[in-house]
Structure formats: structure tokens, C-alpha cells
Amino acid sequence: xxxxxxxxxxxxxxxxxxxxxxxxxxxxxxxxxxxxxxxxxxxxxxxxxxxxxxxxxxxxxxxxxxxxxxxxxxxxxxxxxxxxxxxxxxxxxxxxxxxxxxxxxxxxxxxxxxxxxxxxxxxxxxxxxxxxxxxxxxxxxxxxxxxxxxxxxxxxxxxxxxxxxxxxxxxxxxxxxxxxxxxxxxxxxxxxxxxxxxxxxxxxxxxxxxxxxxxxxxxxxxxxxxxxxxxxxxxxxxxxxxxxxxxxxxxxxxxxxxxxxxxxxxxxxxxxxxxxxxxxxxxxxxxxxxxxxxx
Length: 295
Hints:
single chain; alpha/beta; Rossmann fold; 7 helices; 10 strands; 26% helix; globular
């Protein structure tokens, strides 16, 4: 890990910038305090799951099905959206969409609004209840579900192996961090919304991902959701991507990009004004998709 990240960790701990999880230098705890201000439901809950009519896409460009896959003898389900005009002669990005606590895959499809942006340009898999952050990977069917889905879809569809992208909200964002920590190279980029750094920690409370590699990372965090946790996560992945500690203005204008990152591994951190933990930043999917397309 780069020296500047150790300095950042110390500074972060001193200034007590806590996120929904304990993204400081203390031992990890379960992400999000449900009693915290600005929380209208459980971590990542989608309320009644209803999407206002003016935010629904006029028409769907995908066929959506509920799929079942065997994970070490345990049947698991996920929702799959494939372009109606799927062409086996072209390669598609694969987006793994992970919901927060209190949600499920079915509710996250309209809540996330991913397909309103990606349309027929990507295949999207919504994992269902993949929320266990702490069980060792070998016994963690929630985490292995993500890997199994990727492998299965690569066999069934024409997937661009350089564009395996994660989109996670709240605990789904934390889970993507765990996957990037424990299975480096499985994802090539991830967009984290209201999430934080890996919760896998050593005895001192520092992030403990010795095999992690840098990957393109886009992070948003609400200004009213204590953005220190999101910044800590962004800084961690910036350190793995060889970035400098400094940041420069980026797009959209609420964002800053870390300077000097390795080619193909940009890291961006965005603070959303007046945004609490719930609901998810309404433009998260649109900005994530626009950023993914630059990779």
C-alpha cells in the first residue's frame, strides 16, 4: 500500500470522519447505523419500491427474466436483463447490480434506474440478497454468487471481459468492495453509491487486502450521509491504482478525480449536496453509466 494512504488513514481516524460503516482505522463493524439521522428505513431500503411515473422509462429495450444458479449446492436466484436486439456478433458490457439492506433484486430493478441509461447497450444481472460481508469467501455463498453469475453469463452470452462492471448501493457497494478485495480481477470497474471501503481488516483495523489490484472506481456519497466513509473507500482504491493523493475537478461538477492514476484505472469521488443515505442519489445510474462508457 502506498505511503500516502497510511497518512490518509491516520488523518481520517483523527478527524473522526465516520461513514455508515466504520471506515476509519478502527476494527470494522456492520455498515450503517439504522438509528442515524436522515435514515428513512433500513440500510438501503427502497421504501414501497414504487418509482414515480415521470421517472419510469417510456419503454424497455431489454428482456428481463428471473434466473436460478447453483452455488456450491445452494440454489440462488438473480434477475437478468438482456437487450431485445441482442447480437452474438458484438461484445456487451456486463453490469452486476447489488442492492442494499431491506431490498431485493426485483425491487432494485426499478429503484436503481440502470436500464434507463444503459438501454440495449449492456447486459445487467441483479443479484438477490447478496449481503454477507464477513464470512470467509470459501464459505460465503452471497459473495460467490457474484463470481458464479459472471462465469455463467460469459458462457451464455458475448461478454466483453474488459467490461465487467459493478454497480452497488449501500451494502451492495460494500459487497463490491469485498469482491474487489477477495477476488481481484473479477471486476474491471465499480461504481459505489453510499458505500465504503472493504470491511476485511487486520488487527489494527486497517484494510487487509494484500492481493487487491487497482481498478477503475467511481464513488458518490451524500453530504448529509457523512461522506468521510466514501472518501476513505475512494482513497483506498486510489492507493491501489497508483494515484496521487491530490484530486482535480471532474465531471459531473460534484466530483473530483484523483491525479496520476495508472492508465485505465481512474478513481473519482463525488459528494452529493444535501443528500442523506436514503434514497440513493437519483442520478447515480446515469452518471455511473456515463463514466463507465469512458473506460
